[in-house]
Automatic annotation (TrEMBL):
Keywords: Cell membrane, Membrane, Transmembrane, Transmembrane helix. The chain crosses the membrane at residues 12-31. The keyword Transport does not apply. InterPro entries: DUF421, UPF0702_alpha/beta_dom_sf. Residues 36-95 form the YetF C-terminal domain. GO terms for cellular component: plasma membrane. It is found in: Cell membrane. Belongs to the UPF0702 family. It is a multi-pass membrane protein. It holds the Pfam family DUF421. This is DUF421 domain-containing protein. The keyword Oxidoreductase does not apply.
Amino acid sequence: MIAQGIIEKTIWRAIAAVALFLAVLIVLELFEIRYGRFQNLITGEAVVVIRDGQLNRPALRKLRTTVNQLEMRLRQLGISSIDDIKQGAIETNGEPGYGLTEAAKPVTKQDLEVLFNRIAALEVVRNGD
């Protein structure tokens, strides 16, 4: 419809087609925001593919992806092993979302501060101050 307006050199048909397309997109977005079930119908929901380090192979088959493809994407995100993932899902945009196990989480500044405070407290006790 858009191309037809351009081919015929009538810009008004092309503008009308674009306006109609934008109106439909806006209406769909408004319905997604307002009604939760409509959002699931249009965009879907995340599919859990890893739980407690174990693959959910039926979910992978449903998504038409392989273990190798999933592992490759996880390696790109810096995750070396599926065992390090507490829960992993493929989001509606196709990107993996994940939560790491406690042992696999990186050390934070707060973790280091707690450790340094404990070491300092042990030093005080050991020195008898």
